[in-house]
UniProtKB/TrEMBL annotation:
Sequence ranges assigned to domain Aspartate/glutamate/uridylate kinase in this UniProt record: 28-295
GO cellular component terms, A-Z: cytosol
Gene from which this protein is expressed: HOM3_1
InterPro entries xref list: AceGlu_kinase-like_sf, Asp/Glu/Uridylate_kinase, Aspartate_kinase_CS
GO biological process: homoserine biosynthetic process; lysine biosynthetic process via diaminopimelate
Protein's UniProt name: Aspartokinase
Entry superkingdom: Eukaryota
PANTHER family cross-referenced by the UniProt entry: ASPARTATE KINASE, ASPARTOKINASE
Signal peptide limits: none
Pfam families: AA_kinase
């Protein structure tokens, strides 16, 4: 599990070739970045981490919804708040929340993207996504209902906005990218009770097909995917972005899957909350599983 503070030792050289320096075909490498990492370390991600692997690999970037400081204050939780507010008759709080999300992402784009044409494109995309969300929630308020599938549609906005900024900043730094939206990539019909290995095998194939269409460009992929029977949140839960990255890696037969975090490794507790939390130098799969069961990420 690499961390944002890690310093890759590969010389940075931007290239879009599918062959490495020895002429051998490049292997796929999938990098997943969490929302807090994108909120705090987007310069490291786009300026060093992604680019350092381009000379040797075909890189796929998978993004979670952006968090400025902590997950509790992140885009996903604000979207859930907006959805709840829209169901309150006469409430306009959801409009304020959408505007906060809009301004947060536009300010991030303005802070990091220098090229005015790229910046305008990203700002226009952010505004379009937020305008669609506003219209969707206005309709939900009228009918006084948000179904699980509708909640998925609302949640998907977070990953889209995050990808817009990451793709724009990579473009700003000379890396050709392509935004890949997995929101409606599932076309086959599955029963909610049949989310078995066949279902996940199918997902890995369709995810890989969507990514492969990008050609020489670096795919910047939404960690949110659908439409999942019973809704993504209900059937999969909040860890869907890591799952998406893993399924993409499987479908592409990737050389490596990297889950990047803003901490240096696995700790005995959350180091942001527990002052004497210790970094674990060695941990078994069973111990890692137990930590995850009790809430560790």
């Amino acid at each position: 599990m690499p961390s944002m503070t890690s310093s890759p030792h590969i010389q940075i050289e931007i290239t879009n070739s599918h062959a490495n320096g020895n002429g051998a075909p490049k292997q796929w490498l999938v990098q997943k970045f969490g929302g807090t990492s994108i909120g705090k370390f987007i310069e490291n991600i786009t300026g060093t981490i992604v680019q350092s692997y381009l000379p040797t690999n075909r890189v796929v970037v998978v993004c979670s919804a952006r968090s400025s400081e902590t997950k509790s204050l992140g885009t996903t939780n604000r979207l859930l708040k907006a959805a709840a507010s829209a169901l309150v008759p006469g409430s306009t709080e959801y409009l304020e929340t959408i505007q906060d999300i809009r301004l947060d992402h536009i300010e991030a784009a303005q802070k990091h993207i220098s090229n005015p044409d790229i910046l305008k494109k990203v700002q226009d995309e952010i505004n379009q996504d937020c305008d669609r969300l506003r219209s969707f929630l206005e309709a939900a308020q009228i009918i006084e209902e948000i179904s699980p599938r509708s909640k998925d549609t609302i949640m998907a906005v977070g990953e889209k906005l995050s990808c817009r900024i990451v793709a724009g900043l990579l473009e700003d730094r000379g890396v050709e990218t392509e935004f890949v939206n997995l929101e409606n990539v599932i076309e086959a019909v599955f029963d909610v009770n049949c989310l078995d290995q066949n279902f996940y095998d199918y997902l890995s194939r369709v995810f890989a097909a969507a990514v492969s269409k990008c050609g020489n460009r670096v795919p910047v992929v939404t960690g949110f995917f659908g439409s999942v029977p019973g809704s993504l949140l209900t059937s999969i839960g909040r860890g869907y972005t890591d799952l998406a990255a893993a399924l993409i890696a499987v479908g592409l037969d990737a050389e490596e899957l990297q889950i990047w975090k803003e901490v240096d490794g696995i700790f005995t507790a959350d180091p942001r909350k527990v002052r004497d939390a210790r970094l674990l130098n060695i941990i078994t799969p069973e111990e890692a599983s137990e930590l995850t069961y009790y809430g560790s990420e």
